[in-house]
Amino acid sequence: MLQVRCLLPLSIVLSYLVAVTDAWTQTQIGNNRHTSRLAPLHAAVNNNIVLEPSSSAEKFDSWKVGNARVHRYARDAGDSEIEYVMWFHGRSKEMDVPTLPPLSTGRIGRATSKNGLVWVKDEEGSASEDTPGVSLGLNKESWWSFDTSHVGLGNVLLPMSTPAVLSESGVYLMYFMGGNYEDSKIADYMVSAPESVKDASIQGMKMRIGVAISQDGISWGRVEGDDPTGAVMVPHDLSDPNVKDNTPPKNMPEELYCAWPEVVVNLDAPKDEAFLMYYSTMMKDTKEKCIARAVSGDGFRWQKAGVCLRPDDAGLDSAGIARCCVIRDADFDESSGKWNEKGSWTMYYEGVSPEDNKHRIMKATSRDTKSWSKNGIALDVGDGPDAWDFAGVGSPHVLRIDDGSLRMYYTGQGPDGSTAIGVAKLVTGSSSGEWTREQATISFAI
Fold it and tell me: Of 250, 433, 405, which is closest to residue 337 (Cα–Cα)?
């Protein structure tokens, strides 16, 4: 039975169920407005950064940031002022320990913006968390839970009365993943493990997926799933005695983890499949990193629907795929200034090349949300070693903008392993049809 461990009225949940890196200097505007810290000497290749790790070692995101999920909306139908809100996860320098997976996950924070380019981090966060600036942190209440050692953001669904107007009476849904202090053998995640790591272990790698709800998008309450760990989605693992048999599809491979959930709503689907989840996983036998699919009628109880995207035998994603964003295709009507949705879908996902081990953002399309056709690369790594995202780009999230363009928020990585959030833009209907990095900051040479 699902349980909600929060202060939110249970009636709200029931009604929803019934309804459907430091390179130069940092400029601060006010107390916490963010602008780029990268060197003005390389401004041409570094001016599309919108969010970086905090400079203070005490902050929850002082080491790395990643997986930004952004929404833009008006408070009511007559409001001409648009607001942007971003949720992201970050890891502190204190959490950069060898016993945890080398990811940017740790805790989840929030930021706001008036234009989607200049962001202000929420320095207070939720009053129920033990770290300032955190909206959802480590699970301190249930030692047996799946999310006690680190948490990471998947996606956030807003209570929208229309696709662009926020509803004041609904609840937000946050899908997140987490790991606990359960030991796993590092060799289990490697195709060919060297002798030196065959007996080594790591904690928090068997990730599972959870869901939390909120009335304001700031303070969150976890919803306990049917799994003994409180998760709503767990790896299909026949050797795990705690996993309840949820009758996965035939020929569903066993999994090592379930993480980075991307959830979208498809109102054209049958009611019991109105919620679609695309999550990153690794096959237990082959060690393939794939994207799998699950369906739900309420957003809380999920049924696995099999693997929907696998790496190619050769090419830019043949070393693995993960961390996707799925968006319904739409045409922009210039006369009305509105987007008209179509029956097809686009997935932007992260592919890893075996040639240089770099992550790039790839593209796939679908007519039915089940079968996907790959369309090649969408956004490549930065141009040259001076670029802040030269070592890899991934974790895409795409928004429609009122001028008929699409904006992509993505995580980039530098040669030194530092991470930040950047933006790219696609002008729909343009002859090039290419994503280009969008200028977000202005730097002046001194």
Answer: 405
401-435 tens-digit pLDDT:
989 999 999 999 999 999 999 999 998 765 557 99
Q: Is 429 exposed, middle or buried (0-12, 13-18, 19+ CB in 10 A)?
A: exposed
Q: Report the SS3 class of residue 18.
A: helix
For residues 60 and 90, is the Cβ–Cβ distance under 8 A?
yes
Map residue 157 onto helix, strand or coil.
strand
Beta partners for residue 258, in sequence order: 281
Structure tokens at 384: 């040259």
The answer, yes or no, to whether residue 44 has pLDDT greater than 60, is: no
Q: What angle do CA 241, 239, 155 make, to 5 degrees?
A: 80
What would the DSSP string read from start to end of 53-69?
--SSTTSTTSSEEEEEE
Least confident stretch, 61-65, 253-257, 440-444 = 440-444
| Residue 80 CB neighbour total at 10 angstroms | 5
* Radius of gyration from C-alpha coordinates of the chain: 21
Asked if 388 contacts 49 with a C-beta cutoff of 8 angstroms, the reply is: yes
Give CA–CA dist 349/334, Å, rounded: 29
Burial of 373 (0-12, 13-18, 19+ CB in 10 A): exposed
Q: What is the pTM of this model?
A: 0.89
Q: Structure tokens of 78?
A: 């007559």
- Torsion angle (degrees, nearest 10) of CA 355, 357, 361, 364: 60
Euclidean distance between CA atoms 57 and 69, whole angstroms: 24
Q: Is the Cα torsion angle 434, 435, 440, 442 positive or negative in sign?
A: negative
Q: What is the DSSP letter of 254?
A: P
Contact predicate 256/249, CB 8 Å: no
Taking only the tens place, the pLDDT of each residue in 201-220 is 999 999 999 999 998 899 99
Cβ(277)–Cβ(263) under 8 Å?
yes
Nearest to 304 by CA among 235, 212, 221: 235
